[in-house]
Amino acid sequence: MRSWQSETLYLCLFIEANLIREPLVIFVCATTGQGDPPDNMKNFWRFIFRKNLPSNSLCQMDFAVLGLGDSSYTKFNFVAKKLHRRLMQLGGSALLPACLGDEQHELGPDAAIDPWMGDLWEKVLELYPVPHDLAMIPPGVPLPSRFTFQFLQDVSSTVSEEPRVASLDPPGPPSEFLPFLAPMVANQRVTGPSHFQDVRLIDFDITGSSISFSAGDVVLIQPSNSAIHVQQFCQVLGLDPNQWFVLQAREPGVPCPPGLPQPCSVHHLVSQHLDIASVPRRSFFELLACLSPHGMEREKLQELSSAQGQEEFCEYCTRPRRTILEVLCDFPHTAGAIPPDYLLDLIPRIRPRAFSIASSLLVHPARLQILVAVVQYQTRLKEPRRGLCSSWLASLDPAQGPVQVPMWVRPGGLTFPGTPDTPVIMVGPGTGVAPFRAAVQERVAQGQTGNFLFFGCRQRDQDFYWEAEWKELEKRGCLTLVTAFSREQKQKVYVQHRLREQGPLIWELLDHDGAYFYLAGNAKYIPSDVMEALTAIFRKDGGLSEPDAAAYLARLQRTLRFQTETWA
Question: In which domain of life is the source organism classified (predicted)?
């Protein structure tokens, strides 16, 4: 059976070999990092942008592109837009303009996808009518599940459910489906006791893992559901957590979900695989309605999954951030009747969470540190909303016994210059400062002193992360630190205000010294505020006109001298 990675490679090779012969192709693609394609698209991306492809390569192909993006990022749906243009250049005929799904829309990507899909099917059925002898699947009838659960009556006590992990001295670095179980060494709250948010500095021992990283890289961590949520889920669905099963694919050649052992217990499936704490999408309600034997519940589920019921869906689910588990508790007759075979179709798997690495191996050998803001907030629901991974990490206490966390590392969106005399300007408010601690540690250890850090937080005595470390580096002449404490004076002061105050220095560093500029933090406000401050500096201190200032910033972005790592 092929692995997930080999399946992806096989698919890419298949596409490259057969694309020119395909009459109709629908492309669905996301955008990552600085407008980059996702990892499983990179082979295809290199192929489709080969310069030697004739301009009529795809002249026989009709196509449509559906982009999945987030408008809080500068390069919103960049991959979908670029792919659409490239397919047109190669002679393809677009059935529709590219669909640009937006995670930031109140209704999510569905707000754009719904009308687009209706138009798409109209076009497709004009070109490829359904044969007269082929019946349409009627509404309310679910497709067969991808897998069947074969429950086992007798399972040997020697069966292990330990996830496949990278052993000591593995042949290659750990990866998503072969993570390293890193011992947690320390889990320390670094915000003051009266501060509104719990922020943790967490330290891991990566001895013998073959994990290597540089400043700007990220670590991915695979979280688990809480024990109480696992218990509630099994109760409402009538599942025995101690029951064991093996999966059987309905279609030949379909691999089992990666990371799920065979055989597997229900407890392991629910705690390690099913994302029951996530907010469900419309497709969840659509399938749940198909599976419901209860008239009133089915009618409500159908309403919530319909195009006409999206305002109610938003009010019930999206705005209050109601979870899959909570929805199932609200529809108990339906939940208790869900066939186990449909669990993997109904509920997405838990996705790993990415954290900027906040330490350098040159300063902390065999260690990896992260700065984690524990996500907790209130909606109109009684129970506070909690981030799955941050809450899970915060609950782990290595002082109470050994703790291991599945992890692996990948390149991040920030790359720092290799030339020793190139200065760097880093803007990192709040936990956005994490990657810049790694960068400063690494650069100072290599003898690079042109380090300029703009750090912002609420109060000096509550959330000034690594204050002593920064002050010591300042004394040694290795760092220039500029701070903004937003709540320590009547008028709020943020990092963008400090940038404007340091306008002559910023312009000198960028225009005369070839400095690189980095920004990390919340995507909602910070990027636009900082870019506005920069263009103001270019006008005032650089003497540029407004169009020239915008062009100057665009050139910095294009040449990767302006880089951002932001999150929603």
Answer: Eukaryota
For 235-292, the pLDDT digits (tens) are 999 999 999 999 999 999 888 898 899 999 999 999 999 999 999 999 999 999 999 9
Say what the pLDDT of residue 11 is: 47
Query: What would the DSSP string read from start to end of 195-254?
Result: SSS-EEEEEEE-TTS-----TT-EEEE-----HHHHHHHHHHHT--TT-EEEEEESSTTP
Place of tokens 């900027």: 356
- Cβ-contact 37, 48 below 8 angstroms: no
Distance, in Å, from the CA atom of 376 to the CA atom of 386, rounded to the nearest integer, reads 4
Nearest to 37 by CA among 69, 85, 3, 11: 69
Q: State pTM to two decimals.
A: 0.87
Give DSSP secondary structure letters for 344-358: HHHSPBPPPEEEEB-
| CA separation for the pair 431, 60 (Å, rounded) | 50
Q: Cβ distance 234 to 241 under 8 Å?
A: yes
Give 382: exposed, middle or buried? Use CB within 10 Å, 0-12, 13-18, 19+.
exposed
Name the percent of the chain lying above pLDDT 90: 76
Whole-angstrom Cα distance, residue 356 to residue 330?
37
